[in-house]
Amino acid sequence: MTEPVIEAVDIVRILGEGAWRVEALRGINLSLRGGELTLLMGPSGSGKTTLLSVLGCILSPTQGSVRILGRPITGARPEELAAIRRRHVGFIFQTYHLFPTLTAVENIRLVLDVRGERSRRARAKANEALAAVGLSHKARSFPRELSGGEQQRVAIARAIVGDASAVLADEPTGALDSENGHAIMTVLAKIAKDPARAVFVVTHDPRILQFADRIVRIEDGRIVGQERAGDDRERTQSAGHPG
What we know:
The protein is built from seven helices and ten strands.
């Protein structure tokens, strides 16, 4: 069995202090492996986005450890965490987070610019990432000239252009209709076939269950169930509990 791309061990994350203290994550153990698309589902306030942020090195756990490609990152300094994110993690958000004054290909190239890659090869990589999501013909378009589904595809291309080991998506279909949501998940499922890349999707959307290799359910900061693709009984139960 291959080494997990990201592994969380006994993760606890406490938010706030005193009367505002909340134990957002309570002893989470989870492995994300290459070649797999994992959905995380649960009610609002169950800890989904907090867990994604810990896995993506945005938040540090209060207790427990996170390993990326076998490397422990517990205790890493902020600048070290930033470097790990740039090298290994690609993020996709519900609201796209594209720069309105940059074209589609420029939004993608920005990731490489931040890493100091400004060569002709970097420009080619940006165009290849745009082609991978089916938008080569929109390279010079600005976000205002793109539909919501197209903007999300640009965001996906931006997440993969740096050869991220893990793609973490927070409600990527939440702002889209069924047709565009289906198209976005088709792209993510294709990306997840790469054995060197794990795709992790936080979602409330039961329409996208068909794309998952694995479904993880979380409630009150604890993982309460996991099921693999093809387990029809468990999947039906999850579909009735989207959160």
